[in-house]
Design goal:
alpha+beta; Tetrahydropterin Synthase, Chain A; 4-stranded antiparallel sheet
Length: 118
């Protein structure tokens, strides 16, 4: 079975590796929606994991990048949605081994899933 919990954070960034005339080279911001997916067997309490336990792990990680310039965060010097998803995944997975994948949605219509769901 799989459960998912969503979180939101806002940050600014620019993409230093794109062409000089690319719009994302300029400083800009996004509201990011992050989905944390956990898979596993349902336990005797009737759940895989308490949603509150997911929040306890994820909220401090997202708080560390909320309302920041992502480029100034170690590991996010090139803060593409793909790199942000991997960065979040690595930190959550350390503390939440049942993590399946992370979705990072940038704005209304663009999102990335890491690692890729098969």
């Amino acid at each position: 079975m799989q459960i998912e919990k969503e979180f939101v954070f806002d940050s600014a960034h620019f993409l230093p590796l794109v062409a000089e005339d690319h719009k994302c080279r300029k400083l800009h911001g996004h509201t990011y929606r992050v989905t944390i997916a956990v898979s596993g067997e349902v336990n005797s309490q009737g759940w895989i994991i308490d949603f509150a336990e997911i929040s306890e792990v994820v909220k401090p990680i997202l708080r560390s990048i909320d309302h920041t310039l992502l480029n100034s965060v170690a590991g996010l010097e090139n803060p593409t949605a793909e790199n942000i998803a991997r960065w979040i995944y690595e930190r959550v997975k350390e503390k939440l081994p049942v993590l399946s994948f992370v979705i990072v949605q940038e704005g209304e219509s663009s999102r990335v899933i890491f690692p890729q769901r098969l």
